[in-house]
Design goal:
By secondary structure, the protein is of the alpha/beta class. The protein contains 4 helices and 6 strands. The protein is 35% helix and 10% strand.
């Protein structure tokens, strides 16, 4: 039985202190493993990562092209058919149940069901007591196996509704922005047309005066 008086660190967790400057026979005497002089032999002397002595570093010499979509990648928690055998027949399997059973953990955009393995529920003629699975994505093989065992799959619509609401807001903002740009353009057109019209009236007046003369 483990008690406070017999607790020990794990083997390999603690190491012997490296003793420096204790003679040449120790292998770490004289320069203590730092070599002869130079920046890296000094106390606190170090070179930052990527520094190449003043020449153009490799990270700046290489060209940067293209677009990386990694920042917008959506990570889905994967649950296979074989993992669903841990639940009893008739259970509604959702994100909360999967988290409590430690089948999914951490942050993710949604839950995806894949068809690896066989579902044992409903194989003894108890098709009416199949599982009910709530997920965001389901593969064709997984859907076929779950429905064959008498289970049902419901795709979660919460994220879709949220995205739809955001889309409506964006559309409203876009329409308001378009209306404001139209007003600004009309105002600019009026400002531009006013000096032109005055110039035209002046030129017409000059022409009439020349004709009368």
């Amino acid at each position: 039985m483990m008690r406070l008086h017999n607790l020990r660190p794990r083997p390999g967790a603690r190491h012997r202190v490296k003793r420096l400057g204790c003679g040449e026979s120790s292998g770490h005497g004289k320069t203590s493993g730092k070599g002869h002089k130079g920046q890296k032999a000094r106390s606190g002397g170090s070179i930052r990562l990527g520094f190449e002595g003043g020449q153009m570093p490799l990270i700046r010499r290489l060209p940067k092209r293209g677009f990386n979509n990694a920042a917008f990648h959506k990570h889905y928690a994967i649950v296979n058919i074989d993992d669903l055998n841990a639940f009893e027949a008739g259970v509604v399997i959702n994100e909360q149940v999967l988290r409590e059973s430690n089948l999914v953990r951490g942050h993710f955009a949604g839950i995806k069901i894949l068809g690896d393995g066989e579902l044992k529920h409903g194989l003894n003629g108890e098709l009416k007591h199949g599982l009910t699975v709530e997920a965001d994505k389901v593969s064709a093989m997984a859907r076929e196996k779950i429905e064959k065992a008498g289970g049902t799959i419901t795709l979660r619509q919460g994220r879709a509704r949220k995205s739809g609401a955001i889309g409506e807001r964006d559309q409203a903002e876009i329409s308001a922005g378009e209306a404001s740009t139209e007003r600004v353009s009309k105002a600019r057109g009026k400002k531009r047309s006013s000096p032109k019209s005055s110039a035209k009236t002046k030129s017409r007046g000059k022409k009439k005066a020349s004709r009368e003369s």
